[in-house]
Structure formats: structure tokens, C-alpha cells
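task queued by scheduler; priority normal; single chain, no ligands, no partner chains; default sampling; output format set to C-alpha cells
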Amino acid sequence: MSDQSLWYLENIDVTGIFCPKKVGRGDMDQHVHKHFKKGEYIYLPDEHADKIYFLTEGRVKIGTYGESGKEITKAILSAGEVFGELSLIGEDKRRDFAYAMEKTTACVMSVADMKSMMRDHNALSLFLMKIMGSRMLEMEQRLESLVFKDSRTRIIEFLHELGEKKGQRVGYEMLVRKFMTHQEVANLTATSRQTVTTVLNELRNRNLLTFNRKRLLIRDMDKLEQAAGE
């Protein structure tokens, strides 16, 4: 896991905090863990926002729908990440949807229980603030990239960022497990699937990376970053 990962902060046991079963809150044991099937919506836009989710297994897509009904992907989350956190700062109804991309398990807490946990664990407030601040910054960077950068640059910078945030260093290389489909990368970079395929093939031919449906292996992070500026 990259050193820049948000999901570990000052030795705080996030899993233990978000899954009360592990810290002795027996009154919540029977309903804190929820399982979702592949293709199931965890919540939809306009639903009441009163829960926060800590993803322990699987992958979740966060997105919304444009005026024409077109789906807009905002993020794809994996184990160790939190979503639904805007309910903590007064969001009464969901703006986005959360969709299980595969068999998924999450620890679910009410807003009231989460606020109680935040009082008991001082580092948790900082943890959640860092998550929300980072996501706001990511949205700003994506908007800036969309306005000022071409499709190829956006795709390469996205791959580099993916390696930094979710990659595992293997020697001089960076391994990202559960790589996204070309369409998912296209959705996140506001490009087309065909363009993503073209760029990925170019980078593979240059021996900067290899990929399949299960993983992405970046052979040289510095050279990949340089490729974005070409």
C-alpha cells in the first residue's frame, strides 16, 4: 500500500473503530455488517442520508446522473475506504449513488453512532476531515484537468495517480490489483473507451506498463509521469 494512502492515520485502528464488534459494542453487533451482491445499489440519489459506510471487502462505484440521464462516475472505492460521509455535515438526502461492483461487505454506522465514536476517538475526526478534504481536492484537480489537458494526458496522469494511491511497490515497479475496465477509466477521465485502449496500448508498447483485467503493473513511475508531458 502506498505511503500516501488515506486509510491509515497515526496508528489509528480504523477497522476496529468502524466495526464496533471488534471494540466491544455488543449492542451493534447484529446489524453493523452488511453484505451487498454484485450489481446492487447501496443507496440512490435523494434517499435519506443517515448512514456512513466503511468498505471492508469488494469495490463500490460512487456516481450520479446528468440532466440527460447519463451516468457520471465520481470515484471507485476499494477495501479500507469510507463513503456516505457527507451525512456528517448536514446532508439530508444523497446526491450520489453507491453501487456494488462485485460482492461487497461494509460496516455501516448511523450518524449518531459515528458522532459518538468521534467523541471517543480524537484521531477519527482528523481522519474524516482528511478524507473529505482530499476528495474535494481531487474533484478540483479533475475539473482543472478536464478544462486544460487533453485526453491522453488525463489518462496517463490518472494511471500515475492510481499507482501512487492504490499501488503496492514490487521492487522498482508498482502493482495495482483489481485494475479497472477501460470503460471505467474512461468514465473517470471524461474520455472514451477507445481512447483509453489506444493510450494503454501505447504505454504497453513502450514497456512503461502491463495490464489485464486483474492488475496493472507500472514498470517505472517516473517515466510514466514524464510521458504525460509529451
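post-processing summary
- The longest helix spans residues 122-148.
- The longest strand covers residues 71-78.
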